[in-house]
Design goal:
The complex is a heterotrimer.
Chain A: H1 2-37, H2 44-57, H3 64-67, H4 76-87
Chain B: H1 9-14, H2 30-41, H3 47-59, H4 74-77, H5 128-138, H6 140-146, E1 186-188, E2 194-196, H7 197-202, H8 222-228, H9 239-258, H10 277-288, E3 289-293, H11 315-327, H12 329-334, H13 348-362, H14 365-370, E4 381-386, E5 393-399, E6 402-408, E7 413-418, H15 428-438, E8 449-451, E9 458-461, E10 468-475, E11 480-487, E12 495-500, H16 515-522, E13 535-541, H17 552-566, E14 571-575, E15 580-586, H18 587-590, E16 604-605, H19 608-618, E17 625-632, E18 652-653, E19 656-665, E20 679-682, H20 686-695, H21 707-719, H22 752-759, E21 762-764
Parallel strand pairs in B: 13-14, 13-17, 17-19, 19-20
Antiparallel strand pairs in B: 1-2, 3-4, 5-6, 6-7, 8-21, 9-10, 10-11, 11-12, 12-20, 14-15, 15-16, 18-19
Helix pairs in contact in B: 5-6, 10-15, 17-21
Chain C: H1 21-24, H2 33-65, H3 70-73, E1 88-93, E2 100-105, E3 111-116, E4 120-125, E5 131-136, E6 142-147, E7 153-158, E8 163-167, E9 178-182, E10 189-196, E11 199-204, E12 209-213, E13 218-223, E14 230-235, E15 244-249, E16 253-258, E17 264-269, E18 275-280, E19 286-291, E20 295-300, E21 305-311, H4 316-321, H5 346-350, E22 354-359, E23 365-370, E24 374-379, E25 384-389, E26 396-401, E27 408-412, E28 417-421
Antiparallel strand pairs in C: 1-28, 2-3, 3-4, 4-5, 6-7, 7-8, 8-9, 10-11, 11-12, 12-13, 14-15, 15-16, 16-17, 18-19, 19-20, 20-21, 22-23, 23-24, 24-25, 26-27, 27-28
The chains are: A mainly alpha, B alpha+beta, C mainly beta.
Protein name (chain B): Protein Ste5 Fus3-binding domain-containing protein
Organism (chain B): Maudiozyma exigua (Yeast)
Main location (chain A): membrane
Chain lengths: ~100, ~775, ~425
Amino acid sequence: MTQTLAIEQQQQQLMVKIKYLKLKRINDLNEKLRSELGRDRITASNACLSLINYTTNHTDYTLPDVWGHLEPGKNHFRDAVRLRRANKHPTQSDSAGCCTIV
Amino acid sequence: MPPPQTDDYIYSLTNINGYTKDRHITTANKNSKKKEWSDNHSPSPKRWADKLLNFQLNSRKGKIPAPITPAINSSISLTTPVISSPIRPDQTFPSPHTPVEATTPTDSYPSRVSSLPRPISSVSSKSNTRVSPINSSHSEQNLASLNWTPREGVTAQRSKSKKSFLTAKCTICDEPISHRSHGERIVELQCGHLCHQDCLMISFGDISTSSTNIYELFPPCIKCKVDKSVNMNCVPKDEMLKDRIISDVFLTKVGNVSSPVSSYGSTPINHSASSPMNRKTPDVVGQTVNINTLADIKMVRPATQLGTAPRSVSPQLLNYDVISTKANRYDLINQDKNILHTLPVFDETNIAEEISIASSSYHDDEARHQEISNIMLSTKFVSLEMYYPVETIKVNVVSDSILQCEIITEKMPKLFELSESPFTNSTTALQKWASALLNSNIIFDHEAITSTLRLPPIIKNMGNDGDVLTTYTADGSSRKISEVGTIGHIRGSVIIRRQPKIADDTNIDNGRSSIYTTKTSVSTLISLRRKKPDNLILVLQIDKQYMVSKDAYTIVFNNLKALEILFPSLYICLLDSKMMIQQQGPVSKVVVCKNDLKIRASSERFTVLNLKRQIQKASEISDRSVGIAVVSNATMSKDVNILFSSFELVRKFHGIRTNVLKIKIGYLYMNYTEEIDELAEIDSWPDMLELLCYTFAIDYDSDDEEESELSDFDNSLSITPSSIIDDITSSDDSILTLNIMSTSFDSDMPANNESHIDDSEIFIDDM
Amino acid sequence: MSQSYEMETFNIEPTQPIVPQYIEAEDPNALNLTTLNEEIQQKVNFARQETKNLYSQVDKVKQNLQDANLFEMANNVQQLNTGTINLSPTITLKGHNNKIADFRWSKDSNSILSASQDGFLLLWDSATGLKKKAIPLDSQWILSCAISPNGKVVASAGLNNNCTIYSISGDSMIQQNVQTIFKGHTCYISDIDFLDDSNVLTSSGDMTCALWNIPKAKRVREFTDHLGDVLSLVISPEEGNKNVFSSCGSDGYAYIWDIREPGAIQHFYVSECDVSTVQFFKDGNSVVTGSDDGIINVFDLRSDCPIASYSLQESLNAITNQPTYTASTIEYVRSPMSPKSTVISSSFLDNQGVTSIDFSSSGRLMYATYTDLGCVVWDTLKASVVGKLEGHRDRVTKVRSSPDGLGVCTGSWDTTLRIWSPK
């Protein structure tokens, strides 16, 4: 008899604890939302403009229309290849042939 | 056509040699495809590859080199990695409820040794149910040699290979799993359900009562019971996590067994993450004292005597100081009478006692070493044992509610008796007090005492705008914002501004109704700043009851005269504490000497309408803008305080633009923002002129057009004693590390009164 | 240089108080359990209401700031002429004998570290294609690799849940010099990167990201907000804030973290399906996510909202007409036999998950790899496909630009890596 009472009591206590956890979580969430609300923001249009600005202000040799071509000898990727090609001219072994897969 | 499997990149990465994912497989000719793949995937061995392979073979126990995986070998394939954490049958604690799949013999992850020859991953537990059909669609051979049917149900929980618990619910508390406190883990259970770690932790049964099988302690999974009517316990899927949780349970639940209510070890400390004390106290206490508590709450014994130190504290002063305490931590230390607010305050009778504690033992060392004070607060101690007695200190239990500390020094013994309020069973604070008192090395100075009062949720040091520096706090739940700041060049006085937090429906029009705007453009001190008006109207309510300093009238008078220099037609409306008009008219006529400020027979009650008429009469046509300053030091009662009056009527008339500023002399301990707008609180009369100067952009220095007036002003200023009441100013003029706590910040806590108990305690640092 | 990011106040294994004291210490015979219960319930209700209000307020604020998208704003920017992208293959890195799982550029762009499921890490000279180092791995089940900024240490991680740090400063060509093994993730590690020379970030299928310190040989921070497998992480570029990184996962969210803060500082809901890759834009002010529905989204951190979105479906026609650059020949090749350019059904494009994203040096071009479509080049400002990097004979798994902006590397299941560079 007392045992069942105790168990009941325990259950009840557990309920309260879980409730409290819920409360704590919601409060935490509210905290988070509040800090989110308080965050400094700029408008999307300004963000876009700054992105566009970046693309127009940084040199990019993949876009020859805009930035022209790299001076010969400035691209270390190319130079090494050129040297190698020159060295072993007859065998161009490392190009792998066109896609002929069906 | 197999369903799209673009999400399964894990599978695809582990699928070493098969190109089973190609969606064109089914349509293409199987044989030619296969041939082609092997072409693709087994480039003719180059020298480098050979070298690597050799190395690889030499460095390991020689196995058959198999750069290309043969058909699946079932014995090896069982050792493929499980993508989620491996589940092993538990040897030491066999769980009665371990699901079937948990017994999958997943050896340790495959090392290189075991992966030569390499298995293909289609048997890896995650993808097997889905992948096998695809395999079979193009390679019946594989399936035949596989001799292993995909186990149903392994991935039945989720259709995707990668898990997403975005919409899942906790099996214990039935809340969405995405609702969780900071840093809380989500625990995957063996039955496939999920729960919050905290939910799991508090749901554990009592260790002492249960049988030897630890698994029975795990709470039952409610989802399993409801959905499948299976009795499952919430056992974490992951071994490491499970072990850690079990040890955590042993660590935290042990108290329930060994002591009636809670021993120290089991008392969770609030704000553990942020408190530096959290790490230090247990050491000390563990070393020196072990305090057992009784569940019964004993009556509080009245205070036997107060020490010599306590000062007389009037209720008014107490109220007065609530905000000042909270406004500045350094002030708090400098002013012993403020310390009481860091103690839990429960009722009136306790206050005096606590003051005496504060002043006698905590204010400074002197007090501590000079008197014996027997101070009784409520407590409930049973016994106190000292394992490592400290020579100079004896701690006894006087009764079950009182702890007596005797400090023996060369001069004389000192006795402290400590207890805690009946409203809480928490002994944490008390134990810290006790252990701190036992530790003679501790000096109770400002470094040792910190507050564990929760910081307001939003606190921000505002930038230094010219000479204004402010600290901003807000509490969302009560929708209040407080701000404390100083105007840099003033001698460290503090101005407090409060704002109601954005209501949901305010300021929608411009779409910037965030705290952000409230912070930066509405509630800051900076926002007080206005253009210099052409004329100034001063509504001054003086309650002589609070004009305690004998110089107060002089100061007010001097201030008025100083203002008059720049606003020759300065208009004043002088009220008494009952809002009766004393004087009204231009300062030059009405206030001739300082005695004019003092109260005489009152004529009529103040109304804004009346003021408006008077102003209309008095104001000159040339005035384009008028500043109205409403200053009061009267009690905050709606009937008699001028600050509660609405000045809407005089906001705009005859094309004259007016600005209203309300100043309360003396800090408030409540947030009146709902009733009073544009209120600033300052400490005392000398600050009034500063605030007015600041607000209405009055600048005496740059006013070089009339030299004589300037010198006049200097003279008049020099009369003013600079600092008479120095309640709030700290010794350091540049203080601006302000911790604010207004009374409205506590609403998060469970019960209004009791919340103080839980939340506030004295922490003694550096123990 | 061993910077410590460990926070005194933040435990990576939080053992915070679970229940406030007044509950824990509640008198077992107290009658007020029920009242307490009600009291808390009431507070819960209040707090819920507040949550609702806060949500709507946050939504409102964000909504109001979202006044334009990138393409509208870039209307005046000159269109890129088709076929003028100056990228052509230089070399092919051959040597692995299984799928390339991951690869990284070294900070000086001179080396590439590649990880393959043949169980090796290889360090290549990115200009000559010569191998510099080979590191046999403990586990072939590798998913990610990384190389430290000073180039002395490399890391690998994968399905064995461990992250292994190897020192590569020795002379020998083939060496397995394990410095540390970071154990602690309970599920596979999907991505790793070096924060600096002594700190490594990992993202894992156990729903966490973690920060590991090499000198301390342990996990110093854990980032736990994800509710699904974390599939990718990226550290903010040097122009941005060095302490910031972003992660994305199968919960459909991308989170922005600050190493110094215990919780996420920002989050973006990307899509309902897995978000498999995330990348910072060059300036570090935006993150770009690629999800399994084949859509690339750009979120700006400062404005807290999406500003652009790229979908193959919408530029479907464009891609069939684009010239393709193949590795074998410099001339344009239409490959009518390839299902990619002929029988593109819309459902096929729909099901192309994005597997990796990177940008050209100006950020104008965005390279994106799709599950079965290879590496596609987007015009970032116009949302149009301007080219493809073709030549691999199997699925392309990753694409990464070199830090100096001159090279692009793609790795594939066909066991090779290819480097592309302007002429």
